[in-house]
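agent> step 3/5: call structure_predict on target 'Family 1 extracellular solute-binding protein' (Bifidobacterium pullorum subsp. gallinarum).
agent> reason: downstream docking stage needs a structural representation; sequence fetched in step 2, passing through unchanged.
tool.input:
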Amino acid sequence: MIARWNKALAALAACALFAGGLSACGTGASANGDAENITLVVWASQEDQANEDSWLQEMEKAFQEEHPEYNITWKNQVVASADAAGVAKQDPTVAADVYSFASDQLGTLLDAGAIGQVSDPTMAQLEEQTEGSETMLDTVRGEDGNVYGVPLAGNTWFMYYRKSKFTEEDITSLDAMLAKGKVSFPLTNSWYVPAFYMGAGGELFGPDGTDGAAGVQFGGEIGAAVTEYLVNFRNNPNFVLDQNGSGLAGLKDGSVDVVFTGNWDAATVRANLGDDWGVAQLPCFTLNGQQVQMKAFAGSTVYAWNPYSKHPKAADQFAAFLSGTYSQEKHYTMRSVIPSDVKVAATPEVEADAVAQAQIDTIANTSVVQPSISEMNNFWVPCENFGKAIYNGEVTLDNAAEQTERWMASYESLM
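tool.output (status=ok):
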């Protein structure tokens, strides 16, 4: 599967030499150099292809203009990035030529043989787009060390707060904010709880998140200390559990001053807080007398190509184009999607966008790449249950170490 790209190109070259032109291979190109007739099936979100003037259609027109060697028939279908891997793995041979997916699904796509390794030109583009910001590149690096797809946008969570409650120094410390205002946190959500353990040095599947045999390493003395911190956090009178949108509602009615969520809630935060809204990367927390940085999971929305495509070169090129600098600029302009491209992120418009900067800063400074290997599927439920046990008082200061080790032991039968 990894070598399918090179094999496909080699087959085309061999066919051209044998028959005197690509048309003999069934590509649709004529011997006199006319454009090659191809059809590309593209999966994208409804929002990106709502009408003929939407982002996807505009990018297809731009790609066609840039590649006169193709005469392309586009077949666009609505498949959200969150659903792409689940659909593609059912039968990769009939999946789209080009599709978007959430980076945490990379392992699933690799296991299904449904994703193609990027070509050398695409890799060169990606290295330029992520120069000085390796996190986005790492979100598309497989367990084998190779790269699959090009990130279109980052995905993580950060902090919104009521500005009138806190100083600029306060917002760097979770404990300082707890002393001054109501802090809402999704303690029973397993996407958020690991931020404390990973910040303290805990690892998921090795240092780069690709070693399934390494398992979950949130235990030991440090892990127990983090659990004790979370018990105290939950018992603090200024702690508020965030679930089912209660944190956002609390911002509006004044019962909450801090929430942790992502760019998808920016409009609601601004509406609920008016001019008093603030946003920032994650704060530190105090562990054994030291300041420890919280670290959120970071991922990306990615465009990739299907190795079963009849037009592998064009599919790879178009996937790279959809996540390229120009496309990300247009995506931000048309849909306010925060770019992952370092050049677009440095434009005046994006630099003036406080939410965009909080996300970019979090990914760069206070995050860990979310593992995409299949073993990660077994991580979520035990972590959620442990967070619930802390919130419900089943985990206490007296049994924190024991309960943390029991949590770690629960993974041994799952991994």
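agent> step 4/5: record observation. The first strand starts at residue 36 and ends at 44.
agent> proceeding.
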